[in-house]
Amino acid sequence: METWILDRRDVAAVTALVGRDALMGRVVGRLTEGFADIGHGRRELSPLRGGFTRSEPVPGILEWMPHRDAGDSVTIKTVAYSPGNPTHFSLPTIIGTVARYDDTTGALTALMDGVLLTAIRTGAASAVASRLLARPDSRVLGLIGAGAQAVTQAHALSLVFPLEQVLVWDTDPAHLESFARRAAFTGVPVRVADPARIAAEADIVCTATSVAVGGGPVLPDTGHRAHLHINAVGADLVGKTELPRAWLRRAFTVADHPEQARREGESQQLGPADPVTGLAGLVADPQRARDRRDGLTVFDSTGFALEDALAMEVFLEAAAEHGLGTRMSIEHHPADALDPYALQQTPAAASL
Ligand SMILES: NC(=O)c1ccc[n+]([C@@H]2O[C@H](COP(=O)([O-])OP(=O)(O)OC[C@H]3O[C@@H](n4cnc5c(N)ncnc54)[C@H](O)[C@@H]3O)[C@@H](O)[C@H]2O)c1
């Protein structure tokens, strides 16, 4: 049995051939269907992820994120968060790979890059939540954190709102300075603004920072528009949060995965009695979200493996449409299933 591999050249080719906007659009559509399926009880949320934290030499975490579609497949993303990567190694903060297994035999059926996939599906998840919770005429997007995720947050939201302005802030001047170039393809003008101005002027804010555990909030507890919607993306570690607690306590808080959000998302700041609404239930019953649009709303995004499985499906379908990817026999499936030494050798090895 062969494994279908999409390496970095394949994901680049898929992106170029399908187009960034169409690819993001497909993922937004697929996630919307996936959340609706969960909301209607046709699918289940993924289990909580696990991980190994490290403090040296680059503080961070390596996580495994599983999802099972019984009778079909198991998808597992292994993903590391290493916020020192851009500075020390010129590598992304988020690095990962996504593997898909046959749920019946356990064989590895597909393997692909998880770096672009994570950025796209995280932007797409914010688009799904914002379409429900933000005002449809939202024109000003604020970004706190101008790293990799900020690019796909701006991209996804530019596709579903009539954005006229992006206001951006980052504590690293070089990241702040280069953001306009990285987001130029969205066509939305970008301007630098401090967090207080972003809070005051934005209709939608995305926080996607690498602020340290205990280092938040990344927004001041100052004035904001009454209808502000926030996509809180960066809080995804125990102890790491980005929003002023007072904002969260008076907001209508919606999480992609409420149990995980209470453990490691923005909702860590809430008490057990404070409500955290599941995004899936709102996608299945959108009126409940629309009734909240004139007040402060927060999407607590921690990310889970069904989102990765759905995004992987989109990439694999597009790769199939364009004949991309490599098929490779990685696993040793012996000629005699009961004899591990029944090797299917290469001609060179057989002649030894
Ligand atoms: N919710 C999800 O599904 C999901 C998915 C991917 C990444 N994330 C999280 O999003 C965060 C950002 O990821 P990334 O890939 O963009 O990382 P990145 O390193 O590319 O960007 C993070 C940016 O935040 C900036 N920053 C740090 N502290 C700040 C502060 N106090 N105020 C403003 N800016 C600050 C950094 O200078 C950097 O530019 C990470 O915490 C990551 O774990 C969440």
CATH architecture of the largest domain: 3-Layer(aba) Sandwich
Report the strand count: 15
Give the distance, in angstroms, between the N- and C-terminal Cα atoms.
25 Å
* Helix and strand composition category: alpha/beta
The coarse overall form would be globular
- SSE ordering: EHHEEEHEEHEHEHEHEEHEHEHHEHEH
CATH class of the largest domain: Alpha Beta
CATH homology-level superfamily of the largest domain: NAD(P)-binding Rossmann-like Domain
Protein name: Alanine dehydrogenase
Organism: Streptomyces prasinosporus
InterPro entries: NAD(P)-bd_dom_sf, ODC_Mu_crystall, ODC_N
Region (Disordered): 258-279
Summary?
The chain is α/β, with parallel strands linked by helices and 352 residues long.
Topology:
Layout: E1 3-6, H1 8-18, H2 20-39, E2 50-54, E3 60-69, E4 73-81, H3 85-89, E5 94-102, E6 108-113, H4 115-133, E7 140-144, H5 148-160, E8 165-169, H6 173-182, E9 190-192, H7 195-201, E10 204-207, E11 229-232, H8 245-250, E12 252-255, H9 258-264, E13 277-278, H10 279-284, H11 287-290, E14 297-300, H12 305-321, E15 326-328, H13 347-350
Parallel strand pairs: 1-6, 7-8, 7-10, 8-9, 10-11, 11-14, 12-13, 12-14
Antiparallel strand pairs: 1-15, 2-3, 3-4, 4-5, 5-6
Helix pairs in contact: 1-2, 2-4, 2-12, 4-5, 4-12
The structure holds nicotinamide-adenine-dinucleotide.
Characterization of the model:
With 352 residues, the chain is of the alpha/beta class. The protein folds into 2 domains: 3-116 and 306-343, ornithine cyclodeaminase, domain 1 (2-Layer Sandwich); 135-303, NAD(P)-binding Rossmann-like Domain (Rossmann fold), CATH 3.40.50. 37% of the residues lie in helices and 22% in strands. It has 13 helices and 15 strands. The strands form 2 sheets. An 8-stranded parallel sheet has the order 9-8-7-10-11-14-12-13, with helices on both faces. The longest helix is centred in the first third of the chain and has 20 residues, at 20-39. The mean pLDDT is 96. The structure holds nicotinamide-adenine-dinucleotide. Nicotinamide-adenine-dinucleotide is lined by residues 81, 83, 86, 93-94, 118, 122, 144-150, 169-172, 175, 208-211, 218, 233-234, 236, 301-303. This is Alanine dehydrogenase. InterPro entries: NAD(P)-bd_dom_sf (IPR036291), ODC_Mu_crystall (IPR003462), ODC_N (IPR023401). Residues 258-279 are annotated as: Disordered. It comes from Streptomyces prasinosporus.
